[in-house]
Model the fold of this input.
Amino acid sequence: MFENLQEKLQRTFKNLRGQGTITDENISEALREIRLALLESDVNLTVVKATIDHIREKAIGTQVATALSPTEQIIKIVHDELVEILGKDTAKFKFSSQPPSVILMAGLQGSGKTTTAGKLAAWLKKGGHRPMLVSVDVYRPAAREQLAIVAKSVGAQIYIGKTGDDEAGTPLVERLAKEALREARNFGNDVLIVDTAGRLGIDTALMDEMSKLKALLNPSEILFVADAMTGQDAVNSADAFHKQLGITGVVLTKMDGDARGGAALSIRNVTGAPVKFLGTGEKPDAFEPFHPDRIVSRIMGMGDLQTLLERAEEKLDRGKAEEFAKKALSGDGFSLEDFRDQLRQIKKMGSMQSILKMMPSVGPFQGLQQAAENVDEGQLTRTEAIINSMTTKERLNHEIISGSRRKRIAAGSGTSVQEVNQLLKQYGQMRKMFKGLGSGGGKMQRRLMSQ
Ligand code: GDP
Done:
């Protein structure tokens, strides 16, 4: 997501850096490029105009000397302005004081509403909540079945209810909603997520039904789920929904597929409703709260180490990491068994591509984000397969892995002898590097102590 904008802004800043001093002329040139970059990223025209005006005003007013160089000042102004249009602070997720809190999911068909209901349940569970799901889409039995599958996959409770012989329509919707609320109360669920019927467009029947559900359930959140790939259509439908119903936030799905990101950058400014979450893939954990400052850092090429650290904190086993570091730096090196452990830890963090994309693209990290494009995700799996095909003895002492053993390992892992050779070579280099780091650290420590 945001790849286009990111690339263009970085080029603009690079050009500015190359110029040494900032003049009115090159500021104008930079503003022109930023404007184009925003437009090409499908950001709403009014938002683009306002943003450029603000940046110009601030840039002109900031000729005073500060600790920052003029180029850095401009970068900071653009950064702050983008954060501003995204709504500055992270919009909080609201719970009601009287549980269960009801979350009403709204959106057009195919926007990713049902998938998102499941993702939200998984996210809430991680936060220690006990969500219950219910689908009140009484028009499409398949939709209700889909929610049941989603609920199962994230291990969340679901209220199915009976549609009976009632005629599908708003009264049935209301009955199901009321029953689910009672059920959630009885089971002690503190959140009830209500998946509603999606329609092809915003029509009066849909709005009527949503208004009735709103009145009946008094939800603490009404989340409008919009497909980011539809660009300005997503912005317009969110706007229409907000005007008619009053939503509390937007979830933008399919951000993984939208390289432009214009919808994410426009919604807050156009509708007044904040983006609260992003959907970044089909899996239940491809979901993240929307933090304006972190998103802008990503766009500006400063990476998003904060999110990466949080992900590491959540997924990784700290004890294991410390043990590994000790072993690797101790001088005896680390075994292929430890190497495999590390690979498994990395895999838990998500795809290599998603990890690399959160790295800054400046300074010592330069090139990592671009490297993400060429990452062969299968490589990790193949490497693990090769190590799996070794015996424990071999994993603990790589030196015994002779030519015939290499052949056996290649056949067992469905790879080639070259790949096995390459892995062993890389492993050898890593051992050496870690050893060097370890003894270097020791020397440094001794030197410090002798002073
Ligand atoms: P609904 O009709 O609004 O309930 O939409 P669904 O939840 O059935 O989703 C429609 C399609 O979009 C499904 O194939 C989902 O797997 C897919 N989808 C949902 N969210 C995302 C996302 O964040 N990224 C991607 N790539 N696909 C998504």
In short: The chain is about 60% helix and 10% strand. The longest helix spans residues 417-450. The pocket of guanosine-5'-diphosphate is lined by residues 107, 109-115, 198, 253-254, 256-257, 279-282, 286 (CB under 6 Å).
